[in-house]
Amino acid sequence: MIHSRWNVLPPPPNLARFTAAGFSPVLARILFNRGVSAPEDVPAFLEPDARLCGDPFLLPDMHQAVTRIYRALLSGERIAVFGDFDTDGVTATALMVENLTSLGAQVVPYIPHRLTEGYGLKTATLENLRRQGFSLVISVDCGVSAVLPVKKAARLGLDIVITDHHTPLAELPPAVAVIDPKLPGSLYSFNELSGVGVAFKLVQALSRSMGREPVADGPLDLVALGTVADMVTVLGENRYLVKQGLQILNRTPRPGIRELMSLTSGEDGRIDSETISWQLAPRLNAAGRLNHAIASYRLLTTASVEEARSLAAALHRQNQERQELTNKAARIAREQVIAHGIEPVLLAQDAEFPVGICGLVASRLVEEFYRPAVVIRTGEESATGSCRSIPEFNIIAALNEYQNSVGGFAHFGGHAQAAGFTLPRKMLPRLREFLVELAARQLAGLDLRPRIDIDAESRFSELGGDVYPSIQKLTPFGQGNPVPVFLSRQVEVVESRTMGGSNEHLKLKVKQNGVVWNAVGFGLGNEPPAMRDLLDIVYNIEMDQWNGARSLRLNIIDFQPSGTARP
Questions:
Q1: CB 487 within 8 A of CB 479
Q2: Model's pTM, two decimal places?
Q3: Average of pLDDT values for 203-215?
């Protein structure tokens, strides 16, 4: 277990103003750490509304996209919506197809097969769509790096409108329109939209340009699913989109979501951002990881309860298979990493690694060793890799530097902390050498441990009353707005035992100045504290539900003996 660096965030400089306005010091610190700098800004954070939404026509090339799609609608052209195979891409595909259909478009979805076609726009696929009579392709959650395929599509007379949210490369595809809030020179004030969020902005712009009523909140259930699943920030405009979408998911869930929840839900059956992250998204992703993501698309779009039930059951089974494959591949990757030595970048490769789970395995390596990780499926001629990284190392910038210096990628793209590529197998040794040398320079002298940002140091006596209900008002939680983290010192362990099939978890009872809390420590069972030890603990407060009973408990993230120095 790698213990983390503890970073206690400073209190707001105007704490007295918060407390004078009726906010507890603990809540004031939490709000300040999420960008709420003054008491008068609290209502907008707690109850985000449509004023957070930007004008879609401020996004790059939005006018060009709307004009081209409108022409296709008027002339009855065949339109293909080309999506990615993860939850963000599938929800974006469903949103775009549903809304174009409502406008009278002749539109079909196209989601590539991860194993046989790979990620993103490909020349062969675009040629095939052109032969089938399609004259316009709208990409969602992909396309911003597809320079060569778009060039070739233009020569075939196939127009491309790209909507994406990934980091653009130096050269943009010569599409009819490239809509991406991350493009240089974008006038849009918020650049952290998900792929489905960008698709929603295009739908908004289309509706406005055609003189229709503004797009209602109906599609926001899809926006919430994709945004949370893709782990983009839930601050700013995303906070409004996700909060509204969660309300729809709970009030009027689609048949497919209702059936999926019946297989996975807890006792209350409520859908929140954690439910999406840990229950819905893994199952929606399972189809694309092991077979074809069109099954997840059908689950989201079907009106048939019977079909929804069948699809949900199939996705549930695929997710169980995905878990087994991930565990097996993770063991192999870990053995390779240890045998090779813990390098600045961890690389593992195998011809049997399923392409769809390489990213999950890379994430496990990052979690265990806190190093950037690349997990590669090797073929006879080419290799496909998934990368995950740490905040201290921008992996997409590293891949871009490799391409500019060495070259060889048939395709690559992604974010600062998650990316993927395809390149000739014979070039893997050079890629390893390049990435290890680059990371060694950039990470030299850094304390390579995960950092926990702590909202407030608190005594147990300060955690009662309305603290937990106040915390729940900060939902939805996610990137940029994490579940609040607390630190308490000089805590006595009065009960301690391990739990779980491999005794990997801790179940504790802890006491401070006479106040006792039940606590759990998931993944902390390999270092159980001794009875009566005094600990400093870092934790969240959560609601435990068991056998119909509900009670608050502490979810311990990290701990150390009291009095130990921790940078």
A1: no
A2: 0.89
A3: 84
